[in-house]
Amino acid sequence: MGAIKVSNLSKTFRVKVKEKGLKGSVKAIFKPVYKTVKAVDDISLQVEKGELLAFIGPNGAGKSTTIKMLTGILYPDKGYISVMDICPTKKRKRLAYKIGTVFGQKEQLWTHLTPYDNFKFFGAIYDLTDGEIETRIKELKESFELDEIMNTPVRNLSLGQRIRCEIVASLIHRPEVLFLDEPTIGLDPVVKENIRELIKKMNKEYNTTIFLTSHDIGDIEKLCKRIVIVNHGHIVLDDSMDNIKYHYLNKKIVELKLKETGELPTASGITLLKSKGSNVRLEIDTTKISISEVLKRIDADNMIDITISNIPLENIITEIYKASVK
Ligand SMILES: Nc1ncnc2c1ncn2[C@@H]1O[C@H](COP(=O)(O)OP(=O)(O)OP(=O)(O)O)[C@@H](O)[C@H]1O
């Protein structure tokens, strides 16, 4: 069943163009010139119930604009949207009971209140009874290990603790779809890992559909089975994580530490990425040359160390971004 269905979604903004300097500022007031920016351009996609989807792209690709339309904050110029069978533009209030949102860069919680008071407040907004709120707080407090901070004002919490509370607040009404926009931004690696585990758990235990945007490759790699990449408002790739990796993993990185600079292997399929003193990095296209063939071409007596690794997902995604603008 499709939790999110989108077809031919488009949104254009009219933006004032300002020339440089004081003259430009004056001209912009009296004789404004406008340009149109196609933030979202004919996007179609379907997210199944319980799916954990990464919706990613470079800055300005149209991710936030899409999320804003899916959550009813912005009206599309064109296209069809259904989130849990609700049209966000027509029934925004009804939709609010079905969805939760977490914006890593924006606080939703009242900072002078404690997490407990915030959760009570959010529960009341969603028309839960006192009993339902208490049960839900108890459940989430345990899952998210909030016991020790329940009565500390939010402004005194660390960023990681606050993000955990933000997620709990967005879950108080048991939303069926959760929109997470950069949920781990600014967090240290240990806390990031902890937040990712909680997101996974929530998805597994409650079958919550998760629509995640993040610039953090770790979030994408560890959480999502499917990736949708947008650039310039278009979807440039919609594929499973496994397929993306399989497709790109025919390239390997070979890093060598040599005793002394010598002749490097050359052949079709071998690209020299870096050569600095005795450190060499090669990219191998294994559809053209096998790793064993490459190794045969390296003087073993001159080698101190060798590492063979897959191309990091980060590089794969950058390559996809670049290819999409050619
Ligand atoms: N309210 C607005 N008025 C004018 N232009 C806007 C507005 N909101 C977004 N845009 C433009 O639409 C395009 C898409 O912006 P959007 O914020 O959706 O990108 P994004 O993919 O979320 O980027 P980021 O990763 O930087 O958050 C950009 O060119 C942006 O400048």
Report what the structure shows.
Helix content is 34%, strand content 31%. The protein is built from eleven helices and 13 strands. It has helices at residues 21-30, 63-70, 92-96, 115-125, 130-143, 159-171, 189-206, 217-223, 241-248, 291-296, 313-324, and strands spanning 2-17, 33-48, 52-56, 78-83, 99-103, 177-181, 209-213, 226-231, 234-240, 251-258, 270-276, 279-285, 303-310. β8 and β9 (234-240) form a beta hairpin. α4 crosses α5 (130-143) and α4 packs parallel to α6 (159-171). It is globular and about 75 Å long.
**Rg, please?**
25 Å
Give the end-to-end Cα distance, rounded to a whole number of Å. 36 Å
Structural class: alpha/beta
The coarse overall form would be globular
Whole-number tally of structural domains: 2
Mean pLDDT: 89
Short description:
This protein is α/β, with parallel strands linked by helices and 326 residues long. The chain has helices at residues 21-30, 63-70, 92-96, 115-125, 130-143, 159-171, 189-206, 217-223, 241-248, 291-296, 313-324, and strands at 2-17, 33-48, 52-56, 78-83, 99-103, 177-181, 209-213, 226-231, 234-240, 251-258, 270-276, 279-285, 303-310.
